[in-house]
Amino acid sequence: ETGVTQSPTHLIKTRGQQVTLRCSSQSGHNTVSWYQQALGQGPQFIFQYYREEENGRGNFPPRFSGLQFPNYSSELNVNALELDDSALYLCASSQGVLNTEAFFGQGTRLTVV
Amino acid sequence: AQRVTQPEKLLSVFKGAPVELKCNYSYSGSPELFWYVQYSRQRLQLLLRHISRESIKGFTADLNKGETSFHLKKPFAQEEDSAMYYCALSPSGGYNKLIFGAGTRLAVHP
After folding, report:
1. Does residue B71 contact residue B21 with C-beta atoms inside 8 Å?
2. CB A85 within 8 A of CB B26
3. What is the pLDDT of residues A17-33, one digit of tens each?
4. How far apart are CA B5 and CA A87, in angstroms?
């Protein structure tokens, strides 16, 4: 059974650019949640995808968007990058949206310059 | 507003000393609360969930609705307990859409 994997592990982008981050969910998991973790802070919920549909969103602007594919892997897209978007982006996968544990990936470190 | 507060950024203790990591929450309903841990160079992982009422690695946490607290305790700290600890609240039930605190770094010295 494979765990949650994220790619790339780190990247640097310029303000105003667009970025796509990827998450492969753990085998058998159909739900992916994305979090943003700024330096010195706890993770903050961005949105969740369940069976390819968005299933809840945190307090993030529309330039943060996502997708979930038929194999349940997921992408996080951020347009018009701002310096404050610099953070560790975490995804977590689970089987279902309620009472099954969500397992976290190792994260993607995004730096916006 | 839903919020989780961990008042200490760093807690430093000696091996064998008791540990209490504080967590307070603000939530209007019946919360589900969790403790997550991140060891050095490892990913974030679940430590315990309040409704399971388990003791994991010697840690326990009791939900106190009157004080809106969910403090994490261990009677005798071990060096391998050194890690970053996050308290989290689920407003929607289960393990999803979690609201995390800012975290407390626990350093256990020999």
Report:
1. yes
2. no
3. 999 999 999 988 999 99
4. 20
CB pairs under 8 A between A and B: 59
Q: Determine the pLDDT at residue B51.
A: 80
Q: How much of chain A exceeds pLDDT 90, in percent?
A: 88
The whole-angstrom separation of Cα A88 and Cα A111 is: 9
Partner-chain contact A42 B97, CB within 8 Å: no
- Which chain B residues are closer than 8 Å to A4 by Cβ? 43
The minimal CB distance from A56 to the residues B44, B92, B103 is found for B92
Of B88, B95, B98, the CB nearest to A100: B95
In which residue ranges of chain B is pLDDT below 70?
none
Residue A2 has pLDDT above 70, yes or no: no
Closest residue, chain A, to B98 (C-alpha): A45
pLDDT tens for each residue of A39-91: 999 999 999 999 999 999 999 999 999 999 999 999 999 999 999 999 999 99
